[in-house]
Amino acid sequence: MTAPVMDQTKAEKFAEKMLNILNDGSLALMISIGHRTGLFDALGELPPSPSHRIAEAAGLNERYVREWLGALVTGRIVEYDPASGSYHLPREHAAALTRAAGENNMAATVQFLPLLASVEDRIIDSFRNGGGVPYSAFPRFQEVMAEEGGKILSSALIKEIVPLVPGLDARLRSGLEVLDVGCGKGFAMILLAEAYPESRFAGYDISEEGIAGAAAEARRRGLSNVRFEVKDVAALDEPERYGLITAFDAIHDQAHPAEVLRGIAGSLKRDGVFLMQDIAASSHVHKNLDHPIAPYLYAVSCMHCMTVSLAQGGDGLGTVWGEETARRMLEEAGFAGVEVKQITQDIINSYYVARKAL
User: Fold this and answer.
1) Closest CA to 313 of 182, 134, 184
2) Confidence class of residue 32 from pLDDT cuts 50, 70 and 90?
3) Distance of alpha carbon 179 from alpha carbon 218, whole angstroms
4) Cα–Cα dist 284/296, whole Å
5) The dihedral formed by the CA atoms of 28, 32, 35 and 37, expressed in degrees to the nearest 10
6) pLDDT (tens digit, 9 = 90+) per residue, 180-199?
7) What is the sign, positive or negative, of the torsion defined by CA atoms of 242, 244, 250, 256?
8) How far is the C-alpha of 16 from the C-alpha of 22, rounded, in Å?
9) Long-range CB contact pairs, 36-40, < 8 A, 24+
10) What does the alpha-carbon distance between residue 42 and residue 45 come to, in Å, rounded to a whole number?
11) What is the mean pLDDT of the segment spanning 306-331?
12) Which residue intervals of the chain are DSSP H helices?
């Protein structure tokens, strides 16, 4: 049998793609460092400056800053003037890299890549032997997730997300009991507790670190209408207690998401609403070919969301469980009339509004 002839043009094009991946992956590490050290923020406020001035402004070692700048200059992120030896972050680039950019700050999101890479050896072991990598192996996850989720919630929760449920603003103003499952550091419930003092809020999460941080922040803000507890939400058993239950980017991480959804349905009052934020994607890989961040989502799933679930003996649902599966699981859990909505400030997630089937 004659071996198929290799398409040399296709091979060269793919080799170029691999070279771009190598360079872009390297830049991702440098971008994460730039965010964590405050280098982008310093550059965003400085005029064109030499490396020692940039290092001084950020309170960092000049030699490391200079090498970092070399990667950013050759990566066409920072501009360099060889005549004056000065570096400059263009305003157009700062708009996606500095904390001042708010929800548009992609540097904060890029932090996930080195975080995931830190467990590569354990993921490879799971490929070979099954099982998963436990939540405790990701010591910075709560910190990074809180920053990432906070970008959207801080600007959109009250103005765009609450209005997705007709009449919810009025109900919260008059007094409603609300629960957030998988609350992390409690940012959503703290924002709502401040905005709606007549309502009562609670947040449950298995992370002791997250709950401790949430409780501390609530105390710092002097909030008496919000509480946080370390609790496995798969064992949720508070029949018809809440008028609103929320889950922000949390259901697909659960070890047993079907049990969690059934518990949520049972804990809602008859006129209660479940508001679920989760990844906007299809359950079918071939329908995600044109998704702008599909490779990133599947990688996050493989190296965090899916493996954390499997480490608990869970179902390993994965980040990209998709709308088709989400709709089916919500209906099986006891919800009816599920609506899927989007907001202008969030291109990554969909918002599911689900009511109990009566």
Assistant:
1) 134
2) very high
3) 15
4) 16
5) -130
6) 999 999 999 999 999 999 99
7) positive
8) 10
9) 36/111, 39/65, 39/68, 40/89, 40/94, 40/97, 40/98, 40/99, 40/107
10) 5
11) 96
12) 8-37, 39-45, 51-58, 62-74, 91-94, 106-110, 112-117, 120-129, 141-156, 168-174, 187-195, 208-220, 257-267, 294-300, 306-311, 322-333
3-state secondary structure of 320: coil
Three-state DSSP at 350 gives: strand
Q: Which two tokens stand for residue 350?
A: 């969909």
CB 219 within 8 A of CB 294: no
Contact predicate 218/149, CB 8 Å: no
Rounded to two decimals, what is the model's pTM? 0.91
Amino acid at 314: G
Distance between CA atoms of residues 215 and 11, nearest Å: 55
DSSP state at residue 199: S
DSSP 245: E
